[in-house]
Amino acid sequence: MRKPITLITGTRKGIGKYLAEHYVAQGHIVVGCSRSDVDWQLTDYHHFLADVIDEQAVKALFKYIRQKFGVLDNLINPNSV
């Protein structure tokens, strides 16, 4: 059985980081993104530098996910208002 692929925005710190840790611990492969690089590592975590208000960056992020994993199961945007 394959691991679910989960994209989480804003994973550099705070709730986004906590969610990345949580979903990796639950057996997901997590792709996280933020405007800055992270200073931590997790097995099954892939970080992508992207500002979600930049359309080209978001397109590049989804292209990366499509090419590397072929599917996206979950999208979590904890910082939305």
Automatic annotation (TrEMBL):
Q: Please, which domain of life does this record's source organism belong to?
A: Bacteria
Annotated InterPro entries = NAD(P)-bd_dom_sf (IPR036291), SDR_fam (IPR002347)
State the protein's name. Answer: Gluconate 5-dehydrogenase
